C-alpha cells in the first residue's frame, strides 16, 4: 500500500507540474484547452477533499497548515495516510 501511495503522489505531482506549465507556456492545439479544464477541475476536487479532510479528521488528529496543503496537493493519497493514522490511533486507544 505504501508503494501505491508514493507512486500516486509522484504521478499527482507530475500532473500538477504539467498543468501549471501549460498556464505559463501553453501547449499547441486542443491539449492546452483540455489541460486548462483539467486544472480547474483538479483545483475544485482537491478543495472539496480539503473540506472533507477538515470535517472528518479535525476532531481525531491535530492538524496543521502543512496537513491541509498536503491534502490539497496530493488529494486521496494524503487522505489515505491520515486515514491509517486515525485507524492506528483508535486501535491503540481501545
From TrEMBL:
Protein keywords: Membrane, Transmembrane, Transmembrane helix
Species for this entry: Shewanella eurypsychrophilus
Domain of life: Bacteria
This protein's name: DUF1145 domain-containing protein
PANTHER family named in the record: INNER MEMBRANE PROTEIN, INNER MEMBRANE PROTEIN-RELATED
Organism lineage: Bacteria, Pseudomonadati, Pseudomonadota, Gammaproteobacteria, Alteromonadales
Transmembrane intervals: 7-25, 31-57
Amino acid at each position: 500500500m505504501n508503494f501505491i501511495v508514493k507512486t500516486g503522489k509522484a504521478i499527482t505531482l507530475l500532473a500538477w507540474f504539467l498543468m501549471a506549465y501549460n498556464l505559463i507556456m501553453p501547449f499547441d492545439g486542443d491539449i492546452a484547452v483540455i489541460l486548462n479544464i483539467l486544472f480547474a477541475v483538479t483545483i475544485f476536487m482537491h478543495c472539496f477533499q480539503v473540506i472533507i479532510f477538515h470535517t472528518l479528521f479535525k476532531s481525531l488528529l491535530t492538524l496543521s497548515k502543512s496537513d491541509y496543503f498536503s491534502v490539497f496537493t496530493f488529494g486521496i493519497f494524503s487522505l489515505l495516510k491520515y486515514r491509517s493514522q486515525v485507524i492506528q490511533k483508535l486501535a491503540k486507544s481501545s
